[in-house]
Specification:
Bound molecules: adenosine-5'-diphosphate, zinc ion
Radius of gyration: 30 Å
Oligomer: single chain
Helix content: 40-55%
Number of helices: 33
Low-confidence stretches: 506-511, 515-520, 616-620
Shape: globular
Largest sheet: 7 strands, parallel
Strand order of the largest sheet: 3-4-2-5-6-1-7
Number of strands: 17
Distance between the termini: 22 Å
Length: about 725
């Protein structure tokens, strides 16, 4: 199906291309399908529904659990010139009425609401009076009790399906587990949904594990001083948060605490200051970050142990949502491990104790492993990753590899011999020929694998076993009673179809953490550009404060960096900057161009003359609907407008209007079939002379040589060129 995707993407969001996956999702949405999107934080979920919302007639309803997220998204959309608003309990009655009026007037394309809203009779009456194009369930894992954030209000959402059976539903989440996915499909009654599961690999994130000792504080301080981006430091207890905050403040870092012991007001204030770039560092317990969307967090430090690997993935994943290089550092000390073990031992419920122990072990394995950090995290979600990622401590300092294939075969065949019913320790006991009572009890001293592994220590076998797990060469059950299971890859190793190469030494890497590490893919800014970048940032901050919005709503870091690099001097050049859509061009173009102009003058660089106003671009582009697509399809088959009109039982002028709209929206309409190039140019020239508003003056200016239809078509082309 031909689409308007790219022009609309550039116009409203300022981006040139969709990310992999986004296109299929948007196209399925336009095809009225139910959709489930599983994408990691920073993957670009919002665009998956915001773009189709703009390309369809009617209102898109977005259900979102958190008021702060709603507000931020709506601000960002408005700044891009998209009609968006939200309704929630924080609004005064008059305000609600005003917004409902805007919805009825068709000014709103995206309406954000909390799920409770559906219990409100006035709201339901409003919905009966508008055409709803899609229902979006954001943070859809909230519907599942298996998720980490179950919300009973989400359970009521299935009633929406009954109330609006014809309206397609799109559910989105960053939660990866299969159980939650199935639950979402079932609870929301998604019909034959298109399911998109994105890779959970966050390429722009650098992962490292560091020993936590007396030098750690200095190292963190140095890290914070060597960058100027935002950072989050996670601690397990309030006391740690408070102590670390005080220390950093004393050392001149703009830092604030965030934990459950603060009043609601203080917490909100601290969070707002962080989002608005008034403070740079947030020291927090893990609760922090759920409700924030800040895309430009450059560093996430775990100062204490994360609870489990999934938690670590989600928390560290709050870095670099904008796709810019960012770092995730995890500090581990054996004292911390002992402390967590002690806490787990206090648990009275044996089941949850076992699960907690297994989760702790997985975290320690992750930290101690010489394997790619990314591979271990992804393996945890069942995703395979091969090779050197080039962006974690282990891959950047690879250790020499040894061939462990024979040992792996011994290990795996032992798993097979015990019928895949035992855990790692037991397997190792058999291999090492242990005299434990449990071995004899199961008659395992009679196995052919008994005692064949005495050449290696228990610890070496354990390292091998963990590496096999991390590489997906063997599986383990996760209910707290971990049992090893063979999989396809295990059999490949056993059949000698696959070799196993592992690093020799296994310990937490001790090398110095490099300062100012830049991701190799990024070309760093020159000193001059960096200077401009800083000035652009402060302009952004000033504008954001004037408007009372977070700075990233004005422009993201990537946009400012692009500006610093390109140094555009004309509106045209400015519109080519990453993230500059037509609204932002019109709204902020002059201010940023003037700053660049001043900067270049100061530096003695040549400058183009500064325009006094930005070109006015149409506020809303043409809205294409299904009827346009039908016309385009027939036209592309070679039918004339008259023939299409006949086929569709419509008047020919309607068809001409469709074609003019399609041309304006930069769709593949071969205009030459209807209007020779020379004639097009004549009409374009006339429009430049007498304006585009009315057809009659154009008609007259051209001595009535061209029909109104022809002028209409050429005007579509003229409008298209104003946008692009
Ligand atoms: P998620 O909700 O999945 O965590 P967001 O929707 O907040 O992610 O998107 C993360 C960032 O990526 C945002 O800054 C967004 O503007 C940007 N982004 C999304 N899609 C694209 C794209 N096609 N091109 C460039 N940037 C994009
Ligand atoms: Zn790696």
């Amino acid at each position: 199906m031909p689409t308007l995707l790219e022009p609309t993407l550039k116009q409203y969001f300022g981006y040139d291309t969709l990310r992999p996956g986004q296109r299929e999702i948007v196209e399925s949405a336009l095809a009225q399908q139910d959709i489930l999107v599983i994408m990691p934080t920073g993957g670009g979920k919002s665009l998956c529904f915001q773009l189709p919302a703009l390309l369809q007639s009617g209102l898109t309803l977005v259900i979102s659990p958190l008021i702060s997220l709603m507000q931020d998204q709506v601000e960002a959309l408005k700044n891009n010139g998209v009609g968006a608003t939200f309704l929630n309990s924080s609004l005064a009655f008059g305000e609600v009425q005003q917004r409902e009026k805007e919805v009825l007037q068709g000014k709103i394309k995206l309406l954000y609401i909390a799920p409770e809203r559906f219990a409100n009779a006035q709201f339901l009456a409003l919905l009966d009076r508008v055409k709803i194009s899609m229902l979006i369930i954001d943070e859809a894992h909230c519907v599942s009790e298996w998720g980490h954030d179950f919300r009973p209000e989400y359970r009521q959402l299935h009633t929406l399906r009954e109330r609006f059976p014809q309206v397609p539903v799109m559910a989105l989440t960053a939660t990866a587990t299969e159980r939650v996915r199935q639950d979402i499909i079932q609870q929301l009654n998604l019909k034959d949904p298109f399911i998109h599961i994105a890779s959970f690999n966050r390429q722009n994130l650098y992962y490292a594990v560091r020993p936590k000792d007396k030098r750690t504080y200095t190292e963190i301080l140095r890290q914070l001083k060597s960058t100027d981006g935002a950072a989050i430091i996670y601690c397990l207890s309030r006391r740690h948060v408070d102590e670390l905050t005080l220390k950093l403040q004393n050392d001149g870092i703009a830092a604030l605490p965030y934990h459950a012991g603060l009043s609601d007001k203080d917490r909100t204030n601290n969070q707002t200051k962080f989002i608005r770039d008034d403070v740079r560092v947030m020291i927090a317990t893990v609760a922090f970050g759920m409700g924030i969307n800040k895309p430009d967090v450059r560093l996430v430090i775990h100062y204490d142990l994360p609870k489990n690997l999934e938690g670590y993935y989600q928390e560290s994943g709050r870095a670099g949502r904008d796709g810019e290089p960012s770092e995730c550092i995890f500090y581990l000390s054996y004292g911390d491990i002992a402390q967590v073990k002690y806490i787990i031992a206090q648990k009275t419920d044996a089941g949850s104790q076992k699960v907690a122990e297994q989760q702790l072990r997985q975290v320690i394995d992750y930290a101690e492993s010489p394997d790619c950090r990314r591979r271990i995290q992804l393996a945890y979600f069942g995703e395979a990753f091969f090779g050197n990622c080039g962006n974690c401590d282990n891959c950047l300092n690879p250790q020499s590899l040894e061939n462990w294939t024979i040992e792996a075969q011994k290990f795996l065949s032992c798993v097979a011999r015990v019928n895949q019913k035992f855990g790692m320790n037991h397997i190792i006991d058999i291999l090492r020929g242990s005299k434990q009572a449990k071995i004899e009890q199961y008659q395992h001293h009679k196995l052919t694998t008994y005692g064949i592994g005495q050449a290696h220590s228990t610890e070496s076998w354990r390292k091998l076993g963990r590496s096999l797990l991390h590489r997906g060469l063997v599986d383990e059950t996760t209910d707290g009673y971990p049992i090893l299971k063979l999989n396809e890859l295990s059999w490949e190793v056993l059949r000698r179809e696959r070799e196993v190469w592992l690093p020799l030494t296994l310990q937490i890497v001790k090398q110095e953490l490099p300062v100012n590490r830049t991701n190799s893919k990024e070309v760093p800014l020159s000193d001059l550009e960096e200077g401009l970048f800083q000035r652009l940032r402060s302009l952004r901050k000033t504008l954001a404060d004037e408007q009372n919005v977070p700075p990233y709503v004005i422009f993201g870091d990537s946009s400012l960096r692009d500006m610093a690099r390109l140094q555009p001097q004309t509106a045209q050049a400015f519109s080519n900057v990453f993230g500059v859509g037509s609204r932002k061009l019109a709204r902020y173009g002059i201010q940023f161009l003037s700053l660049i102009h001043t900067f270049r003058t100061e530096q003695g660089l040549p400058n183009a003359e500064l325009a006094s106003s930005m070109p006015m671009l149409p506020e809303a582009p043409i809205q294409l609907t299904a009827t346009h697509w039908v016309t385009l399809e027939l036209y592309q088959k070679g039918l004339s407008p008259e023939a299409i009109a006949k086929e569709r039982n419509l008047r020919p002028t309607r068809i001409i209007n469709h074609l003019a709209d399609l041309i304006e929206a930069n769709q593949p309409v071969e205009l030459e079939r209807l209007l020779a190039l020379q004639s097009q140019n004549d009409i374009l020239h006339a429009i430049e002379e007498v304006g585009h508003d009315r057809l009659k003056p154009i008609h007259e200016y051209l001595g009535e040589k061209y029909s109104y239809e022809e002028i209409r078509l050429a005007r579509g082309l003229w409008k298209q060129r104003q946008v692009t």
